[in-house]
Design a protein that fits this description.
38% of the residues lie in helices and 17% in strands. By secondary structure, the chain is α/β, with parallel strands linked by helices. The structure holds iron/sulfur cluster. The site of iron/sulfur cluster (SF4) has 13 residues, from helix 2.
Length: 447
């Protein structure tokens, strides 16, 4: 629970010395509560107050980073129980599990690399490879981990209860594809620390500065282990509360999320890892409340629904998915090709552009900035009108692209045609109301 300005004020020296740059301690406390300044600006705050305030300022659920560079994945850091309360922030990281007994590693890596899809203008895919030490052979585990890291380029989850095998995998040095880095330098998640090995696993996680997952057989043991591992100095912790049956998992994951967010229960304020072996269970865990999902499936037809579901759940409901406002080419248009206009709501764009492609008539599509709203909504909100279309036409220099001075507007906003003609001096043609009418329109009316 975030502290109020008055709560913070109680812990300050109350001397109003102004060293922090604020006229009074209360003003400083208020600014701190709004996260407009930091506690270290007050040189006189006591160590005791510092500890209290810093721990209260921690987010209710930690954010943990796995991997490095452009493949780094952040998980956790959620602040709400329900997406509609605000938004979920870090999409469930999907890990494809591979056994270190796998006979065709190169083929497996190729399959994993293909698990990327284009959805509404974004490339979305799997995030991690989870290497499981089924062989019980530390050397083999290290070699398979290194190879999968290099071949897929994805961050790893190293699954073994054997500290020696984990350490061997972490110190495996890669070839040129890894830039000479060892596996540890690519920040894999180590899975897992249990009651019987947490001391060694914690030492390893600290030594190599990698995140560590704790496994408890139930919520109590998980909370106890996360505290022990944290006390050993491990900062980045992920939790597995031991359940494997779907209804129990949903119950436990919901309880973890509630305890962390509503009760600020720190021992469970960490990202949760879940394991599923079928699409239905995996979908359930994406909805409630896995931060990392490990699955053995690697077929596109199994991954596409999961990734689409994840995209829907982790889209900010307050921010529509938008296209960049600009002039798009559909096919290879020239100066005689039709010019159409629409808004930058991505679903509108991805409804309109395929229909233009279907018409097989190369065209220019001017996408106007309408705050990501669809055509009718943007028109009603006065974001898509003669002035905004005129401004977009000038910005995209459409007059330099076509020689005919005709623009096709969506049928739903035919009402703006007169004003648009007056404003731009262009001939305004009213297109069909529905995008599905575009092929016929372009082939008949336009021609
Ligand atoms: Fe108060 Fe500390 Fe600021 Fe001085 S520096 S006014 S003691 S908050």
């Amino acid at each position: 629970m975030a502290l109020s300005g008055l709560d913070i004020y109680k812990h300050l020296p109350k001397t109003n010395c102004k060293k922090c740059g604020f006229p009074t301690c209360l003003a400083f406390a208020m600014a701190l509560a709004q996260k407009k300044t930091s506690l270290d600006k007050c040189p006189d705050v006591s160590e005791q107050a510092k500890m209290t305030l810093e721990s209260a300022a921690l987010p209710p659920m930690a954010t943990v980073a796995i991997g490095e560079g452009d493949k780094k994945v952040e998980v956790g850091g959620e602040t709400v129980i329900f997406r509609h309360d605000k938004t979920f922030v870090h999409p469930t990281a999907i890990a494809i599990q591979v056994s270190d007994n796998e006979s065709d590693l190169a083929g497996k890596a190729e399959k994993i690399k293909k698990l990327n899809f284009d959805r509404v203008g974004m490339t979305v895919g799997v995030n991690l490879v989870a290497v499981k030490n089924d062989s019980n052979d530390a050397v083999k585990f290290a070699s398979v981990s290194k190879e999968l890291s290099e071949k897929t380029g994805l961050p790893l989850v190293l699954i073994s209860e054997n500290p020696a095998a984990i350490e061997q995998a972490l110190s495996a040095t890669g070839g040129p594809a890894s830039g000479g880095k060892n596996v540890a330098q690519k920040k894999p998640l180590v899975y897992c620390a249990k009651e019987n090995n947490f001391e060694q696993m914690s030492d390893i996680a600290k030594k190599y500065s990698v995140p560590l997952c704790v496994y408890g057989k139930d919520l109590d043991e998980t909370a106890s282990l996360s505290q022990k591992v944290s006390a050993k100095g491990v900062k980045d912790i992920v939790i597995d509360c031991g359940c494997r049956e779907v209804s129990k998992c949903v119950q436990d994951y919901t309880q973890i999320r509630r305890l962390a967010l509503k009760k600020n229960f720190r021992p469970l304020g960490y990202p949760v890892i879940a394991f599923a072996d079928n699409v239905v269970d995996a979908s359930t865990y994406i909805l409630k409340y896995a931060n990392i999902l490990v699955i053995p499936m690697d077929k596109p037809e199994e991954l596409l629904p999961l990734i689409t579901l994840r995209l829907n759940i982790y889209t900010d409901p307050q921010k529509p998915i938008m296209m960049e406002p600009k002039l798009y080419q559909i096919g290879a248009p020239d100066d005689k090709s039709p010019l159409l206009v629409t808004t930058n709501f991505s679903l509108t764009f991805f409804t309109v552009s395929p229909e233009i492609e279907n018409a097989k008539v190369p065209a220019w599509l001017l996408v106007c900035d309408a705050d990501g709203m669809s055509v009718l909504t943007a028109w009603a909100a006065d974001k898509f009108n003669a002035e905004t279309v005129d401004a977009s036409m000038k910005k995209a220099d459409v007059a330099g692209k076509v020689s005919h001075k005709k623009i096709i507007i969506p049928g739903y906003v035919s009402v703006m045609s007169g004003k648009l003609e007056d404003t731009t001096g262009w001939q305004v043609l009213v297109g069909p109301k529905e995008a599905s009418g575009l092929p016929k329109y372009l082939k008949t009316v336009w021609k």
